[in-house]
Design goal:
Its cofactor is FAD. This protein is of the alpha/beta class. It has a single domain, classed as TIM Barrel (Alpha-Beta Barrel), CATH 3.20.20. Helix content is 49%, strand content 14%. It has 12 helices and 8 strands. Strands 1-2-3-4-5-6-7-8 form an 8-stranded parallel barrel, surrounded by 5 helices. Helix 8 links the parallel strand 6 and strand 7. It binds flavin-adenine dinucleotide. Flavin-adenine dinucleotide binds next to strand 3, strand 4, helix 6, helix 7 and strand 6. The site of flavin-adenine dinucleotide has 24 residues, from strand 3, strand 4, helix 6, helix 7 and strand 6.
Length: 296
């Protein structure tokens, strides 16, 4: 099933993101975790793609397993910045052969080498080039792209970032998923700016449940996202008690999701980070509140 068709349904939906293993040895553990999340029957799942290659083949392997053995609509991520045209064309063919119809088209983060040496001889510079290639390879691909409510860190300002975002939608992105947001107001003001700029496709807020204190610094470093004081207070109070912090993180994420639904957002994407217990906690809370208005 195409993700865009799920996003257009009347019912509210929740989707979960998982990531492939960093080492071959941990593949079975990751596979088991992603299967446990699939058994919760979310609206769809996405699998990230390691920008540096190496274990990237697992993205497709995990996506295929969940699609064919658990009947979950799957979104496979693909990055282009460190890849040659030849590699990308091969990856696109692999996806077509695997029957994967939904692709999250990304540039990927710049490696230290690319930052030091510049990107002059790279085959790809921006995600928009990958979107064009995906569309050219198969017009039937349903394509997602990334967006940044607090602007992408490399952008000089938000207006410039939104200008390039619009180019991605015009090139064929069917929907957008945001960088993690911890303050819903930032998401809503971003959404108004997108609509004002003529970007009218579905935009999924990305919610990252922070369930242990060590995640906080990493999440901020990775995303640059603003963390509200009332969330920092939770970490201060419960960060040294793992079980309490896990529950506090689940409740904070649930509260964000319910507030989004209450204010007209119908689809939310959760960075579930291969944690079935966290995904289950959020899903149970959300379905208890939404009941029959909830599609999973
Ligand atoms: P782009 O859209 O290319 O944008 C990058 C920067 O370039 C922005 O500042 C933009 O304004 C600017 N820009 C865009 N087009 C142009 C242009 N034509 N001319 C000049 N400037 C331009 N990384 C992974 O490695 N694997 C993943 O699976 C992954 N999944 C992600 C999922 C989501 C929802 C998000 C939000 C991010 C994800 N990332 C992933 C991280 C992502 O790769 C980085 O944030 C990366 O730095 C930017 O990727 P992008 O696709 O947004 O790039």
């Amino acid at each position: 099933m195409k993700i865009i068709d799920i996003l257009k349904q009347d019912k509210m939906s929740l989707s979960f993101e998982v990531f492939p293993p960093k080492k071959e040895t941990s593949f079975e553990n990751v596979k088991a975790a992603t299967e446990a999340i699939a058994k919760l029957n979310p609206a769809f799942m996405s699998v990230t793609y390691g920008a540096g290659g190496g274990v990237s083949q697992y993205t497709l392997e995990i996506a295929k397993n969940l699609k064919y053995n658990f009947n979950i609509p799957m979104l496979a991520h693909l990055t282009c910045i460190s890849s040659t045209k030849e590699t990308i064309h091969q990856r696109i063919e692999d996806m077509k052969a695997a029957g994967i119809k939904n692709v999250m088209a990304l540039r990927g983060d710049l490696t230290p080498e690319l930052i030091a040496n510049g990107r002059g001889d790279c085959d790809y510079h921006h995600a928009v080039e990958l979107i064009r290639e995906l569309k050219a390879a198969d017009a039937d691909f349903c394509i997602g792209a990334a967006c940044y409510p607090e602007k992408h860190p490399e952008s000089p300002n938000q207006a410039e970032d939104i200008k390039h975002l619009k180019e991605k939608v015009e090139a064929g992105a069917d929907f957008l998923t945001t960088q993690m947001v911890f303050d819903n107001n930032l998401f809503f003001s971003f959404l108004y700016k997108l609509r004002d700029a003529g970007v009218n496709c579905p935009v999924l807020p990305g919610i990252m449940p922070i369930t242990n204190a060590n995640q906080v610094e990493r999440a901020i470093k990775l995303s640059g996202s603003f963390m509200p004081q009332h969330f920092k207070s939770l970490v201060d109070k419960f960060g040294s008690d793992p079980e309490a912090m896990k529950q506090a993180g689940i409740i904070y994420a649930t509260d964000q999701i319910i507030d989004l639904y209450a204010n007209g957002i119908t689809n939310v994407h959760v960075y579930s980070m291969n944690k079935p217990d966290v995904a289950e906690g959020i899903l149970k809370n959300v379905s208890a509140i939404l009941g029959k208005n909830f599609a999973g």
